Amino acid sequence: MKTFLTCFLVGLVSLAANAQFKKAEISQIKNKFLDIPYATLSKAEQLDVYLPDEGDGPFPAIVSIHGGAFLGGDKRDGEETPMLEGLKRGYAVVSVNYRLSQEATWPAQIYDCKAAVRWIKANAKKYKLDPDKIAAWGGSAGGQLAALLGTSGGVKSLEDTTMGNPEQSSRVQAVVDWFGPTDFLKMDEQLKESHEEHPLPASVPNSPASLLLGKNIVDVPDLVRQADPDTYISADDPPFLIQHGLEDNIVPFEGSILLARKLGRVLGYQKVYLELFPATGHEGPAFFTEENAKIVFLFLDKFMK
């Protein structure tokens, strides 16, 4: 049974998501395939495929991964709207649901995301997708999962190939990480240094990070490292675009800076882009402007087309 605090957190996540965004508007999209299972362990393991109105493909694909503190969120939430802009620019969009922490603890979430990527590649021809041009894009919890897809290609411990399509690789060719967390154990201190007051510290048993890992994060440092995209950085990682708000009191921006620095040392500055938005909080409006859409798609076009 959920504790009161867990229920409160779920409500807080839902309220935050709905305060600025409602459901994505998909009624006008002609070419769509909804609620397709990509695995069979859970009803949550479904995805939606959206294709451009024009063109025969194969289309480069954006894998859209929703946020929600690993507790909530859905593949059709309004935060998917920027990704759907890709349909006008020749991209397919594949929006993914994954098991939330109240159903399954880590590493189920990255298992699901990797299973979805393998499914995309196995079914690429059927849905006019280019299996060699896949970008992961997510915000908050979705940003962490997108970043981990980028850095952990080929890491067997973060992949359950029994979930389907084991012959396919789960590597992606680009990552857009919006304000995703990195090392959970550093978050409280980083927020303190930024003089930001978090509504709930990460290092308590009922924080989203602790609920994700199934134990208080301070008691499972090995699991924290396993969930940190920084842990797996290697020279064969794809290009990254990382964006974060400097007034984020949920996920500290320092984590994004450290991730970008570590990636840059290995990949080179030509493949790592970091933008910090002033006067911008968690999931703030700066991310969803037309101007920022141009920045994101210029990045994707450079490496995906």
Structure description:
With 305 residues, this protein is α/β, with parallel strands linked by helices. It has a single domain (4-304), classed as Rossmann fold, CATH 3.40.50.1820. Helices cover 31% and strands 17% of the residues. The chain is built from nine helices and eight strands. It starts with a helix and ends with a helix.
Order of helices and strands: HEEEHEHEHEHHHEHEH
The N- to C-terminal Cα distance equals 48 Å
Report the CATH superfamily.
Alpha/Beta hydrolase fold, catalytic domain
Computed Rg: 18 Å
* Largest sheet, spatial ordering of strands: 1-2-4-3-5-6-7-8
Low confidence ranges: 1-12, 14-20
What's the CATH C level? Alpha Beta
Strand content: 15-25%
What oligomeric state best describes the polypeptide chains here?
Answer: single chain
Assign the CATH architecture.
3-Layer(aba) Sandwich
What global shape is seen? globular
Main sheet, how many strands, which sense, barrel? 8 strands, mixed
In total, the number of domains comes to 1
Rounded average pLDDT: 92
Q: What share of residues is helical?
A: 25-40%
What is the SS-derived class? alpha/beta
